[in-house]
Structure formats: structure tokens, C-alpha cells
Amino acid sequence: MTKMIYPGQTIGIIGGGQLGRMMAVAAKEAGYKIAVLEPTMDSPCGQVADIRIVAAYDDEAALEELAEVSDVITYEFENIDYDGLKRLTQMAYVPQGAELVRITQNRVTEKQMIVEAGCPVAPYIVTSTYEELLEKIGEIGFPCIVKTARGGYDGKGQQLLKSAEDLQLAKDLFTHSQCIAEGFVPFTKEISVIVQRNGDGETYCLPVGENIHINHILHETIVPARIELSTAQLAEEAALKIADSLKLIGTLAVEMFVLEDGSIVINECAPRPHNSGHYSIEACNISQFTQHIRAVCGWPLRKPKLWAPSIMVNVLGQHVVPLTNSISKFPDWSVHLYGKSEAKVNRKMGHVTIMTDDINTALQQITDSGIWPE
């Protein structure tokens, strides 16, 4: 049996951003205390935590302190120090373990894991140097996308190459880490499945979301995704295969491309609650954050149910003022702001969830609001 963490005990969270904040709020509803390890003092999660440890994620003394005050430890993002997390698993209860982070924080090991789980990926090559990229590029051809193996998010650390003339644009990527080059997949939609699993192997997926990006940053998630039922089934089957292969405890977001024929290709995974699952706070009978807390605390999981078609829209720095000036016009919108002190352009500051009977009408309302100009 999985170890049960009871209300009144303390959940430690590595990372103080908005995902940690929403995890903490969900945990506090059930009576848990929260400790957060985060380098900045006034972090979104720190604002709602009981214990704040302000230190770098790889600070050994800070990790020991987190272990001492926590009955269970989870994390809100994957780019944390693997060695530090591994040491932490030896002195504290970290049900997700460290291997999940090791695999998913590197695109090379992540791709290998997806293939071994029996799921489709775009054709790709692994290259350690720019010279090696030049030698191997013929194996996948153009167009292709070169991505750093480590550290990329929201479009950072990647470069689209349309032809051989573009090759030099990828040169700087190799100063950070080895890279993969992926053949460009002619997709019609991007979707994601959030799969959650507890230590007893009980597993559920949230409804499939359709993701629309602007400048490589998620703009909207539409649920249910506007795809064929057969494609949704393929997507869910793939997410379950990957979760089982990883012996997942907690949450895994699996991002995918939908091809013209309705088949899917897995793009990448994130071992945590995900931006594309925020709609679940209002739109489902259980949010991704509450389910995550249940999974890491050894509770039984709840089968997710969507109450109504919904759209989640990200609020970036440039959207905060027009949104706050428009709150009185949209009583049916659920507005979430994350408590970040500075509204920088393209920085994720919050999100809005709109539950609706008609997705197209809601999409038009978002456009007409003028908050998110094209």
C-alpha cells in the first residue's frame, strides 16, 4: 500500500511559481500545511505557504531543511537539480522520485523513453556539436527544428531550419548542451493530455485539451479538443502507456501533434501540472492540482468529469491592465492572477477560464474583448 499523508501534515514544494501556488491552494483546502523552497522571497507560492525556505534549488542545507519540515515533497517544474533531488529522496519521502525528472529534463532521454513506451515521435537525430549536425542533417532533411537537449521552454532553446542556408542559425544552441534535430511534422492541431497516477497504479486522464500558441507561448486551451473521438482515444492511450512505462506517481502532461489523418505524434512531456490543465479548476469535478495532491499523498483518485465546454486563456504581462479594466464586463469569466510583482511583456501573470455552451461564441467574445489583440 502507498504511504498515506494526512491533513494537518506538511507538503514540501520545490519551486515557488504559479503551479506551486495552485498546488498549495488545493492542498490547503484539505487542511495541509505547505513548505516551499524558492530562491525569491515574495514568490507566488511563498505568498500562501506556511514555511518559506529562500535558497537556491541545489542548496544542500536548504534541501535538508525542507526534508526536515516536510512529510512529503513534490515539485512544480522539471528543471531542478537532479543530483540534489536524488539526495533528497534518501532523506525524505519524495513519491515521484528523481528518475522522472532525469528523464524528462533532457530531450534525448525523453524521446528514448517515449519510443520505448511504444508511442510515435517525429523522426529525429541526436547531435553533440554543430559539426555533427552538419554531418547528420541529411538523415532528416528540411524543414526541421533544432532543440537544445536541456533547458528549453516556451519556444526558447530551439530554431526552425527551413533549408541548408539556415543551418548557421542553430550554431549558438550548441553552447548550452547537445541538441536534437527533429523532422518537421505537418500537423493540424496541438493537443495535450494530463495523466495522473497514484502509488497504487490508479490512473486517470483529464479531458483532451486543444492548445493554441502565439509566439511559442500557450495562448488558449479549448476543452474538449475539436478532434475526432478516435484521435482523442489514441491520445489518451498514449498518455496511459507513457505513465505506466514511467511508473508515474503524480502528474504528467503529454503534448502531442495531430496529423491530417487523425493520427498523433508525441512532442514532449512535463512531469507536473501543466498550463493546459488550468481550466480544470472550474470546469471539472476535480482540478489537476487537487488530483496531484491526492496522488502524492496516497489518496484514491477521482475520475475527472467535464462540467461544460471551456476555454482557458493565458494572461501575459501586457494583458493585465486591459483585463483588470474589463472585469466588470464579464461576470462569467473566472479570473486567476498569480501574485507576481512585475508584469513583464510575455510573462505569465495569470489566466482566465470561460465555461460556455458554445465554444465559437466564447472565442469571439475573447477576440471582441480587445484584451488579447491579434
From TrEMBL:
Q: What is its EC number?
A: 6.3.4.18
- Stretches assigned to the ATP-grasp domain: 111-297
Entries under Gene3D superfamilies matching the protein: 3.40.50.20, ATP-grasp fold, A domain, ATP-grasp fold, B domain
Q: In which pathway does it act?
A: Purine metabolism; IMP biosynthesis via de novo pathway; 5-amino-1-(5-phospho-D-ribosyl)imidazole-4-carboxylate from 5-amino-1-(5-phospho-D-ribosyl)imidazole (N5-CAIR route): step 1/2
Q: What class of enzyme is it?
A: ligase
Gene Ontology terms for molecular function: 5-(carboxyamino)imidazole ribonucleotide synthase activity; ATP binding; metal ion binding; phosphoribosylaminoimidazole carboxylase activity
Provide the binding site for ATP.
107, 147, 152-158, 182-185, 190, 213, 267-268
Checking SUPFAM superfamilies in the record gives: Glutathione synthetase ATP-binding domain-like (SSF56059), PreATP-grasp domain (SSF52440), Rudiment single hybrid motif (SSF51246)
Which cellular components does GO assign to this protein?
cytosol
Q: Name one GO biological process term.
A: 'de novo' IMP biosynthetic process
- The UniProt record lists the keyword Electron transport: no
List keywords of the entry alphabetically.
ATP-binding, Ligase, Nucleotide-binding, Purine biosynthesis
Q: What reaction is this protein's catalytic activity?
A: 5-amino-1-(5-phospho-beta-D-ribosyl)imidazole + hydrogencarbonate + ATP = 5-carboxyamino-1-(5-phospho-D-ribosyl)imidazole + ADP + phosphate + 2 H(+)
Q: What domain of life does the UniProt record list for this protein's source?
A: Bacteria
| Protein task | Catalyzes the ATP-dependent conversion of 5-aminoimidazole ribonucleotide (AIR) and HCO(3)- to N5-carboxyaminoimidazole ribonucleotide (N5-CAIR).
SUBUNIT field: Homodimer.
Family membership: Belongs to the PurK/PurT family.
Q: What is this protein called?
A: N5-carboxyaminoimidazole ribonucleotide synthase
